[in-house]
Amino acid sequence: MYNDTITGNEREAGAQATVSLVVPALNEARNIAWVFEQIPACVDEVILVDGNSTDATVPMAQHCLPTVRNVRQNGPGKGNALRTGFLEAKGDYVVMMDADGSMSPAEIPHFVHFLDHGYDFVKGSRFVAGGGSLDITPIRKMGNRVLLLAANRLYDACLTDLCYGYCAFRRSFLDQLDLHAAGFEIEAEMIVHALRSGLRIAEVPSLELPRRSGCSNLHAISDGRRVLRTLFSERPGARSPAARPTRPARSTS
Predict the structure, then answer these.
(1) First-last CA distance in the chain
(2) How far is Cα 81 from Cα 169, in angstroms, rounded to an integer?
(3) d(CA 84, CA 73)
(4) What is the pTM of this model?
(5) Digit-coded pLDDT (tens) for 106-142
(6) HSE-CB for 103 with a 13 A CA cutoff
(7) In the sheet that 201-205 helps form, which strands lie side by side, from edge to edge?
(8) Looking at residues 183-210, what average pLDDT do you find?
(9) Is the pLDDT higher at 229 or at 223?
(10) Which backbone phi and psi does 191 adopt, to 5 degrees?
């Protein structure tokens, strides 16, 4: 359960936190319109991080949302794209989501709600009550379970989902997240660094939708190995000493 009481560290009375949405994209012209047309009013800026797309991703994004900020990533990989976007973000809160239509922008207010009410890092879960997936394959589901079990044991946590990149966090904690990963393993790196740093974590229900068109750049086996290496290399005691992580809170609403 979660605590709805806003603490002294939260927003001042009457103030409204600003929200930056970071969307990494590579050749998503056929999907980006659906995503951008559903962005809710609580989002103050949208940052499209383009990975040198060869299709009309950028002009399509500008057509659908003239205020979008287009940023070109300076290296390969989803991790590089996200890190680039995070550094460009100006909002109090940063939300990250994919450009392929597998994550609904309509869920963003739910993430913001938990940041407003005392949490520092909010992650979507397909496996908490109210969540689900219309796209996950048996091998991805099995891999996620194995990696989730490893993460929970190594970090004394009780998470329900690990390899899902719909997350939001307070930008003021970006330094604590200390992100370096270049590929898909950045999602796991974010979570375990949040645990290591003692950030207040909430899981919220999220429905993963099928990719609207095109093929995913995810490679289940090779990317799964990279996630596993990240879990072991970043565990408490593997590098510099870190405070014992607190168990994350989980939403049941």
Answers:
(1) 8
(2) 17
(3) 6
(4) 0.84
(5) 999 999 999 999 999 999 999 999 999 998 888 888 9
(6) 24
(7) 69-72, 45-50, 19-25, 93-96, 167-170, 121-125, 201-205, 249-250
(8) 95
(9) 229
(10) -70, -45
- Cα separations in angstroms, 191 against 10, 83, 139, 196, 247: 21, 14, 22, 9, 12
How far CA 165 is from CA of 12, 15, 26, 51, 64, in Å, comes to 30, 28, 16, 17, 23
User: Residue 130 has which token pair?
Assistant: 């109210």
Amino acid letter, residue 76: P
> Residue 23 burial by CB count (10 A; 0-12/13-18/19+): exposed, middle or buried?
buried
Token pair listed for 19? 């929200």
What is the 3-state secondary structure of the chain? Answer: CCCCCCCCCCCCCCCCCCEEEEEEECCCHHHHHHHHCCCCCCCCEEEEEECCCCCCHHHHHHHHCCCCEEEECCCCCHHHHHHHHHHHCCCCEEEECCCCCCCCHHHHHHHHHHHHCCCCEEEEECCCCCCEECCCCHHHHHHHHHHHHHHHHHCCCCCCCCCCCCEEEEHHHHHHHCCCCCCCCHHHHHHHHHHHCCCCEEEEECEECCCCCCCCCCCHHHHHHHHHHHHHHCCCCCCCCCCCCCCCEECCC
How far is 30 from 9, CA to CA, in rounded Å?
42
Encoded tokens for 158: 């009780």
